[in-house]
Each structure stands twice: as C-alpha cells, then as structure tokens.
C-alpha cells in the first residue's frame, strides 16, 4: 500500500504537465493536490525511465521551526531573502506589488505598486536590483533594490510565472515543464531545460528558488515543491507540504494556494508561504523512508 501511495504521489506531478499554462493565476488555483489514476503496475512506476534519474525519488516531510505573521492580503507570487529581510511580489491586476517585509512582524517596510494593467508574478534580486515578472504582458520591470524606483524593463515571449538565479543566469518558469535560462543583462534566452520525474514531464512549475545548487519549484495545484537538478532537469526530491495551509489557520479554498519559497543561505533557514495566507513558516525537512524500507 505504501508503494502504491508513493507511485501515485509522483505520478500526480507528471499529470500536472498536462495542464494548460492558460489556466493560471487569473483563475483561482485549487488547494488540493492533482489526482491521477492508479498505475497498472505500481512496481513498474517506481522504475526510472532515464538511467540518469533515481529509481526512487526521495519524498520529504516537514516540521515547523517558526511561524511568522504574513499579510493575508498578499497574493504571493515571488519570495526571497536578502540582507536580513524578505522581499515579496504579489499578483492580480490592481493588487500587484513589490515589497520589503520585516520577518518578525510581517510589516511591509517598503512597497512599489505595479500599474493596474499588469498582473505581477515572480521576483528575483540581481546586482542591486529587483526584477519583477508579469504574467501575460511579456514584460519584466527592473527596480532599484534600495529605492524601489523603476530603472528599466525587459520583454520576453510567452507567460511569466517564477524566477530565480544561479548566480550567473536568471532562471524563469512559464507554467509548463520548461525552465528558461536567461542572460541577466539582456534577458535573452541562453538555453532551456525540460523538467522530468522518472522520464515523465513535470509541469505547472511556478515560484522558483535556487538552493544549494538545485532549483526548487512550487508545483501549482499541489502541495508539493520539487527539487530539480539544473544539469539534467531530473527531479531529485519532492517535498510534501500537505497540511501546512491548515497550520496557517485557513480552510480549503480555491484562492489559498501554496506558493512562495525563500532561502536564507547564511542562516540555513527555509521559508514557505502561500497566496493570501496569514502565516509564513520556517520549516525543516526530513526524508521519508523509501517504499519497502
């Protein structure tokens, strides 16, 4: 039975790739995980299709280290930790912002309001600037990190969802199973990467964070964060955050969706939250036993 549950959980990630990138933030996002029919052979489902990928992808649970207040009016799109503060981008037309936030109190210390016609998406810091994506406008705004003044903009094809950086390039998601690697000075695409779990595509990749040489991504319409090898695109681990929204004190809702990953590399702290959540969590991970162990 545990083997079957394991196979179903990982297969659900592959099924997410079948969803359309058109059905995104403008439509309410479901809190529940994506369901999938049971594989005919659960044992076969645990065998890697690609020899470069592990036969059994580790699944991690979590424990809550600290709970912090979070603005329940924030439709969280991007989240990052920089110089002792959280930086957050929010979405929806007329509600989109870029913010500097105090971790302990949740107070918004600084704020930039995105023009009404733009639906804000992911956020990344680069060379003293903050780059904020928009959803369908094909435009990213570049803000001075200190003043929040708009210093420039870039354009890109397709949709913008999440964005992070590996220190040399920007990495962007568009709601599919594909990640784009961009030149941070010109915003031109340098390369792209397809994300897979046991050879099957993993789509609806949303908010991104670069953590210890891996790309971590929220999977929209699931309670999962996937850990991605940036060299191969293979999923190296799945973090199951089922139950965390209830810990935030909210019930099931089509709007209250898990989204937002921030990594404090100096302190080794991992923060997560969700859209319209009244709480932000610092969590620790613990790997669950593999099937058969």
Automatic annotation (TrEMBL):
It comes from the Bacteria. Residues 29-52 are annotated as: Disordered. One of its GO terms (molecular function) is glutaminyl-peptide cyclotransferase activity. Residues 1-21 form the signal peptide. Pfam families: Glu_cyclase_2. The keyword Signal applies. Keywords: Signal. PANTHER family: GLUTAMINYL-PEPTIDE CYCLOTRANSFERASE. This is Glutaminyl-peptide cyclotransferase. It comes from Aquisalinus flavus. The lineage of its organism: Bacteria, Pseudomonadati, Pseudomonadota, Alphaproteobacteria, Parvularculales.
């Amino acid at each position: 039975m545990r083997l079957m549950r394991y196979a179903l959980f990982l297969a659900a990630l592959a099924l997410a790739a079948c969803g359309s990138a058109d059905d995104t933030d403008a439509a309410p996002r479901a809190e529940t995980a994506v369901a999938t029919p049971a594989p005919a052979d659960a044992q076969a489902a645990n065998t890697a299709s690609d020899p470069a990928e592990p036969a059994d992808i580790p699944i991690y649970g979590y424990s809550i280290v600290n709970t912090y207040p979070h603005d329940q009016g924030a439709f969280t799109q991007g989240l990052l930790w920089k110089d002792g503060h959280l930086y957050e981008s929010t979405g929806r037309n007329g509600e989109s912002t870029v913010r500097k936030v105090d971790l302990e109190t949740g107070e918004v210390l600084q704020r930039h309001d995105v023009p009404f016609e733009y639906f804000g998406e992911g956020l990344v810091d680069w060379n003293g600037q903050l780059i904020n994506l928009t959803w369908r406008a094909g435009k990213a705004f570049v803000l001075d990190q200190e003043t929040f003044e708009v210093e420039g903009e870039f354009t890109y094809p397709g949709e913008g969802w999440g964005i992070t950086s590996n220190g040399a390039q920007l990495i962007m998601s568009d709601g599919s199973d594909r990640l784009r690697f961009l030149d941070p000075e010109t915003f031109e695409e340098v390369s792209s990467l397809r994300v897979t779990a046991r050879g099957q595509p993993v789509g609806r990749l949303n908010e991104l964070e670069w953590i210890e040489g891996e790309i971590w991504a929220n999977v929209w319409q699931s309670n999962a964060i996937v850990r991605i090898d940036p060299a191969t695109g293979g999923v190296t681990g799945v973090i199951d955050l089922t139950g965390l929204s209830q810990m935030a004190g909210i019930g099931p809702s089509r709007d209250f969706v898990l989204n937002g990953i921030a990594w404090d590399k100096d302190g080794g702290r991992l923060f997560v939250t969700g859209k319209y959540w009244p709480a932000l969590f610092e969590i620790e991970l613990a790997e669950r036993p593999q099937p058969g162990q």
